[in-house]
Each structure stands twice: as C-alpha cells, then as structure tokens.
Write a structure and sequence with these properties.
It is built from no helices and 20 strands. It is mostly beta strands. Strand 14 and strand 15 form a beta hairpin.
Length: 235
C-alpha cells in the first residue's frame, strides 16, 4: 500500500483576480491563485498546481517566449524564477518593492519590471542554478508616477512603458548617444496597456477611461527623413 501523495490541485474559491496568461507551446492557461500558480489544459480540461509557493499572493506573471521558464512576483516584490520543464524554482530575487508589470523581451534575453516610477531591465538567467543568476542591465526613468504596463518591440531593442502620469515613454534597451526617450502625452487618464504594432511603426495605448490612442512613426518635417523620425498621435 503506497502512502506517498503529491499535492497537484487547489480546491475551493481562492482566486483573487491574479494575472492570467497562455503558455505558448502547449496552449495551456496559467493563473495566479493566491500564492500558487495553477495550469489549465484547455484540451483535456485538466487542472494542476505547480509545486512552488510564494510567501504572499502573486501579483505578476510572465512566461518566456520559448515556454521553458516562468517568472512569478508576489505582492512584496519577491520573485520566483521557475523552470516549467522540471517544475522547480531555479532562482530567487527580491525586487524590494511592488511590481506592477513584468515582460520578457521577444528574444528571451531580457526581462523588464515596472517598479514604482522606474523600469528595471535584467538579463534573463539560465535554467540551471548559479550563485548570481540575475544581472541588472539598465534602470530606466522618465515617468512622474507609477508605471503600470510594459511592451517590447518585436526586435527586442525598444521598450514602451505607460503609467499613472498618463504618459507612454519609449525606452531604448541599449544606451544611444543620439536617442532621447520620447514621452507620448495627451492621454486623459492613466495608461493601462500599451503595445507595438506588428511592424513596430506604431504604438497602441489604452487608457483607464477606455480611450485608445494610436501613435505612428512619421518623418519630422525639419529633419532628414533618412535619419530622424518622430511619433505622432492619430486618434
């Protein structure tokens, strides 16, 4: 008679409006349920819970583009880097403040965190354990209030952030001498979501009042169109 039992599911109403996302390879649904992460197989209608646990409720989730790793951040800013293949925690990181959003770059090399008025970009750690798994790449500013959303361009070279100051700031991943991060202003309430167009020549911003602003890349009339471009709003 076997007396070995594994905890594989959560019972009861414990979902507290945590983040939800899709796993890109198996099309499973991942949801933060309290301080745990549950997976829902939409084909077999099976539900399992990852054998990892945060200290407090999980408020931010992000999955790597290849579907191999998951980042979960709790309400106190403590991060778990999870290997989804082995279902084990590979690394921990204390961000020391609440994280409103987290996003992997499309190439999977970097991950960005919205921490108060700042955006921190870290190099994505490897899936094997190491003494220093996380390495800070850049800390980005430009906002007058808390950042609420993040979006990467398809080439992983630019990062857009929107926040309570009703602005969208477009950051460069690498330091460029001639580049000044533009602030896309004119929204009437806080920006809740931002995303790049498929060709990266437009940014879509959704504000709290349900208005949508479309910022398109256009040549400046006072500059060489081969060298300088600016973003203008088309509502």
């Amino acid at each position: 008679m076997s007396l070995h039992y594994a905890f594989t599911n959560l019972c009861g109403t414990v979902y507290r409006q945590g983040p939800i996302l899709f796993e890109p390879t198996t099309h499973a649904l991942l949801a933060a349920v309290g301080n745990r992460v549950s997976t829902y197989n939409l084909k077999t209608n099976a539900t399992t819970t990852l054998p990892v646990e945060a200290r407090t409720n999980i408020v931010s989730l992000a999955i790597a583009p290849d579907g191999a790793s998951l980042i979960a951040v709790d309400a106190d800013g403590r991060l778990l880097f999870i290997n989804l293949r082995t279902r084990a925690v590979v690394a921990h990181l204390n961000l020391k403040r609440k994280c409103a959003a987290v996003a992997f770059s499309p190439d999977g090399r970097h991950v960005a965190f919205a921490l108060g008025r700042l955006v921190q970009v870290w190099r994505t750690p490897r899936l094997e354990r190491s003494f220093t798994p996380f390495e800070l790449h850049h800390t980005l500013g430009g906002h007058g209030d808390d950042v609420l959303c993040l979006a990467w361009s398809s080439d992983s070279l630019f990062l857009a952030s929107g926040g309570l100051d009703m602005n969208v700031v477009v950051h460069s991943l690498h330091s460029l001498d001639s580049y000044k991060p533009p602030a896309l202003t004119g929204h009437r309430s806080s920006v809740k979501s931002a995303s790049f167009a498929e060709d990266d020549r437009a940014i879509y911003a959704v504000a709290k009042d349900s208005s949508v602003s479309v910022w398109r890349l256009a040549a400046r009339p006072d500059a060489d169109p081969r060298q300088e471009r600016s973003l203008r709003c088309v509502r």
